[in-house]
Amino acid sequence: MAPKINPAVDIVASPPIAEAANWLPDRPPQGVGALLDLAQAIPNYNPAPELLDYLGKAAADPATAFYTQILGLPQLREALSVSLSTEYGAAISPANVAITTGCNHAFCMATAAVAGAGDEIILPEPFYFNHDMWFTMQGIRKVALPCREEGEGMVPDIDEAEAMITPNTRAIVLISPNNPTGTIYSEDRLRAFYQLAERHGIALILDETYKDFRPIDAGAVNPPHRLFQEASWPDVLIQLYSFSKSYSLTGYRVGSLVAGPAVMEAVSKIADTITICPPHIGQLAALYGLQNLTGWRNEQCGRVLQLIDALDTAFKTHPSSYQLISRGAFFAYLRHPHGGRSSIDVARDLAKNQGLLVLPGEFFGDSQQDYLRVAFANANAGQLEDLARCLVVSG
Ligand SMILES: Cc1ncc(COP(=O)(O)O)c(C=O)c1O
User: What are the chain's domains?
Assistant: First the structure.
């Protein structure tokens, strides 16, 4: 007899991207070219060739087969602290930097460090589904903070967030640039959330997986925010990052978590228990990237940014009744024209009839039935035209 599954895990929905992949027909429907998979956020470029050469040699070194320190290779923590200090105009010490087994792992550790079963964390909706899944498994109560369509895209409101804080609240989570909406929060909004968290003695967990895909004015000093310049940041901010997207290293599983000493101590216990250390080879890849590939990375990220122009052009050239609500970094968030219909049905029909795979808004929160998420950074400009054409046909 199969073992009884922990109910907290049993009630979590199946991994959403795998579920959506089942909606695609084996062969493209009649009249449509290749299947167009815009479901998962994967960079549309390969890792740098010199990185692959280096990793071939690194893998042949027996030393690479061994564990590293729990919080990562000291030289990588040092290199990342230097890089972040420069980028954010702040003094971030290596002791504040942990290397993690990807950013999802960083998120799980950050939230487990500050909250347990019965505690509350405020999560803007639409949310990244893995965040919600983790909370359910942990018995952490998700307090959904609705995002509304506004100037920057889709944004959470600071007063609404404040009204949700109770004695059980442990943290607020923000993702900027956002998954699923692509919205980049203004520095003022980030600062207001920081001050709110500080006032209430709770953590601000900021997932910056897509920070390298923000538009940067040529030559301008343009940090994503200046929160690390606050003297209080170690008591308030937990910043998360991923090497997956910027360096095209999704399979190497390497990310980071930056926090003050109390959180870092908790994280070292959690990391030791779950992974012992991040993959050694992934850490070497990240270190090589930081030391040698900043120019290459900026070029690749710049190309992804250009796709936004291609997306806008495609939507103008092929106007449909699907409305582009927000876009940025890897994602576009669309309002579909079939009001009242579940976004799951709409996305399933697009897959079946058009060979177009996008994710339904409901994967990112029950309130999101009018929306679809398009991971456009998987595509090239021609495929974005195909996307816009498909939407005309089904609009
Ligand atoms: C907001 C966000 N955080 C974290 C991750 C996962 O990153 P990693 O591959 O480093 O675990 C993703 C991946 O899609 C993401 O969108």
Answer: 7-46+296-394 (3.90.1150.10), 66-292 (3.40.640.10)
